[in-house]
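Sequence in, structure out. Go.
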Amino acid sequence: MYLDRGKIIVIEGIDKAGKTTQANLLLNILNSYKYHKYVKFDF
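Output:
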């Protein structure tokens, strides 16, 4: 298994629903590329 360095994208804001929508849209765009896989962590 090959492990690569990860990057964390932080979406800041007050509105939880708005952040979730932004995160999902961003993930859809990022995951459309072939060689990288992005996942969402909710804190």
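Check: The mean pLDDT is 74. The chain has one helix and no strands.
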